[in-house]
Design a protein that fits this description.
The complex is a heterodimer of chains A (about 325) and B (about 280). Chain A has about 325 residues and is an alpha+beta fold. Chain A has two domains: about 160 residues, no CATH class; about 140 residues, Cyclophilin-like (Cyclophilin, Beta Barrel), CATH 2.40.100.10. Chain A contains five helices and 20 strands. A seven-stranded mixed barrel of chain A has the order 12-19-16-17-14-13-20. In chain A, a hairpin with a 2-residue loop joins β16 and β17. Chain B folds into two domains: about 70 residues, Gyrase A, domain 2 (2-Layer Sandwich); about 180 residues, Cyclophilin (Beta Barrel). Helices cover about 30% and strands about 25% of the residues of chain B. Chain B is built from seven helices and 13 strands. In chain B, strands 5-10-8-9-7-6-11 form a seven-stranded mixed barrel, surrounded by four helices. Chain B starts with a strand and ends in a 7-residue tail after the last helix. Classes of the chains: A alpha+beta (about 325), B alpha+beta (about 280).
Chain lengths: ~325, ~280
């Protein structure tokens, strides 16, 4: 096997992901994994002539240092980690080139939290449940099911010659400049376990992103919620706390109320358990969750399922090569 | 999410699995995946292929065609899993918790006591004397959520609060009304009662007993735990490591809810609930 990349420093947690991730795994206890900021990830791939879902790297908070072992086209999107090639600063959101021996460095995120690196042709990775994504809990897919380590060598699939492309400014994501994020959510499945007052409290609260957050979920700090009669007077098998229920499946992006702590379930989150899910984050807001930093503020906004699906459709339409400019 | 009722009656899970089975056999476009649970079924669908009102109508039609719960039949097989009850490894996890978090009674003693059983050895007899129904695989890869099919063997216990820091992989544990096998070394809240030497989840299983290539069990399967000693545990572990372990499962057959209800009712009528 010939190798095209060598990891000199892995960064905090750098993994191979593809989009949309694992298929048909929910029934067997696997969440989908894949990139949390699916928008930046897809754009990175389009910039290097790949299918939007092709395997690339997700980089979290502190970036890796990677040596190119062959000449390659690549692109960096998402969070600004002051990417550089042999020490020369690199722009985000455009097709870039590197020669064998050159060193790509991503530092600490100065804006956002997660960057994505796509390589023309896509990365070679382990295939698991219909995906090349790393599922770190299951230790499957991606690079032997693990985050990258120093010395790992990766192969890039062959690609054809591509032109240099950029993503126009107006389509570049979606960052908060004041540390506040509006997160679109839909009601359900367990919204009737909160009282009307409880739902209002949830919507009117400035929730603080806890540093104890990862690819499984984002913990939020804020007030105790208020529950409905259904949560307070229930069959004993639901458990004693108002947020306890007979085990249910958890939707992707579900907001899980664990006692008094809401946890937004992300790509490697639990697929079920005994706590209610009164709200679910609309897929259009997942990229914002990916880019929020600890101690920033979430304000939630309820939209209808139909609205959520329309926004999703618009984003999917944007994630096509015609959005890019040469 | 489709809810079938507001309690934990096993019949509601039969409805969830019956509906899931019927949906899988149907030609509805756009359904990607599903998570059944005790009294609900969560479906994931592709909104570009089907609109929510159409999907709701299709599912209502399928549900109506299922008829009464007792008519439901579910594809099921029985897996015999060796279990080293009262094992030293889960004991170490409990002791570590006592040392670092909270002093507590040894889990098997605790579960036996609050269920009115004589001691932990009776707990082992009760727990291994029934087939356990796999209601769902959830939370973790291959992690089965099970309920005893013999109502006399139902054990109820509150979960750890705060949760345990770690659980040995393949620990057999009980919490609420459920039994579960924690497939990975993770934190957890269930009471630990034993450990199986046999993995029920593997990323790359060599045995063709695994469904869909990853999970030994699937919702609707049944598990019978076979008590083994520590020596047998070690022997089976060595077989698992050398890929020579043969999983013991029956072929698939139809599990009839009607037959189960009849049997279950006859036990209750004899008035010997929880009296093995």
């Amino acid at each position: 096997m010939t190798y095209d990349l060598e990891v000199i420093k892995p960064g905090l947690e750098t993994t191979i992901q593809d989009w949309p991730g694992l298929k048909g795994g929910f029934k067997y206890g696997f969440n989908r994994s894949g990139p949390i900021d699916h928008y930046s990830f897809r754009m990175a791939n389009l910039l290097v002539g790949n299918h939007p879902g092709a395997p690339g790297l997700e980089v979290q908070f502190i970036g890796p240092t990677i040596r190119f072992l062959s000449s390659q086209k690549f692109a960096v999107t998402g969070a600004d980690m002051e990417a550089s090639l042999d020490g020369n600063p690199l722009p985000l959101w455009e097709t870039l080139s590197a020669e064998a021996g050159q060193i790509l460095t991503l530092g600490s995120a100065i804006k956002g939290a997660r960057s994505y690196i796509a390589f023309s042709g896509g990365l070679k990775a382990n295939y698991f449940l219909g995906s090349y994504s790393t599922h770190t809990i299951a230790e499957a897919g991606g690079f032997d099911g693990k985050k990258l380590e120093k010395g790992n060598k990766i192969t890039i699939n062959p690609s054809s010659v591509i032109e240099k492309l950029t993503l126009p400014d107006k389509y570049q994501s979606m960052f908060s400049n004041n540390g506040q994020w509006i997160i679109e959510i839909v009601l359900g499945p367990s919204n009737d376990w909160l009282s009307e007052e409880g739902i209002e409290l949830f919507i009117n609260t400035d929730w603080i992103v806890s540093p104890r957050s990862n690819r499984m979920g984002i913990r939020l700090e804020g007030p105790s919620l208020k529950f409905s009669e259904r949560a307070k007077n229930k069959a004993p098998e639901h458990g004693s706390h108002p947020s306890n229920c007979v085990d249910i499946g958890y939707p992707f992006g579900g907001i899980n109320i664990c006692g008094d702590t809401p946890v937004v379930l992300l790509n490697e989150g639990l697929t079920g358990g005994g706590f209610i899910i009164p709200f679910t984050v609309a897929s259009c807001s997942l990229p914002k969750l990916a880019q929020a930093r600890p101690h920033e503020i979430f304000k939630f906004k309820i939209i209808s399922v139909e609205e959520a699906q329309n926004i999703r459709k618009n984003i999917n339409t944007l994630c096509e090569s015609k959005t890019l400019k040469s | 999410m489709i809810e079938f009722g507001d309690d934990g009656a096993l019949e509601l899970n039969f409805m969830a699995l019956g509906l899931m089975q019927a949906i899988e056999q149907s030609e509805i476009a756009g359904i990607i995946d599903s998570i059944p649970s005790y009294n609900s079924l969560l479906l994931e669908y592709e909104p570009d292929k089907i609109k929510l009102p159409d999907l709701t109508e299709e599912i209502q039609n399928i549900f109506d065609s299922l008829g009464p719960i007792s008519d439901i039949e579910i594809n099921s097989r029985l897996a015999y899993l060796p279990c080293c009850y009262l094992d030293p490894w889960t004991k170490a996890a409990i002791e570590d918790y006592c040392l670092k978090v909270n002093e507590r009674e040894f889990d098997p003693d605790f579960v036996a006591r609050i269920n009115g059983l004589e001691d932990k050895h009776e707990l082992v007899r009760v727990h291994s004397n029934t087939e356990h129904w796999v209601a769902s695989i959830m939370a973790l890869p291959g992690c089965a959520l099970m309920r005893p099919l013999d109502p006399r063997c139902l054990l109820v216990s509150p979960k750890y609060n705060p949760p345990r820091l770690w659980t040995p992989a393949n620990a057999v544990c009980t919490g609420g009304m459920s039994t579960s096998i924690h497939t990975l070394r993770v934190p957890g809240g269930y009471n630990l009662i034993g450990r199986t030497p046999v993995p029920v989840y593997e990323a790359n299983p060599t045995s063709d007993a695994f469904r869909n290539g990853v999970s030994l069990l699937q919702p609707g399967d049944r598990v019978k735990f076979v008590p083994i000693s520590v020596e047998e545990y070690k022997y089976i572990r060595s077989q698992v490591r050398s890929d020579s372990y043969q999983y013991n499962t029956t072929d698939y057959s139809k599990f009839s809810v009607k037959e189960w209800e009849k049997w279950s009712l006859s036990l209750t009528n004899q008035g010997n609930t929880n009296d093995l």
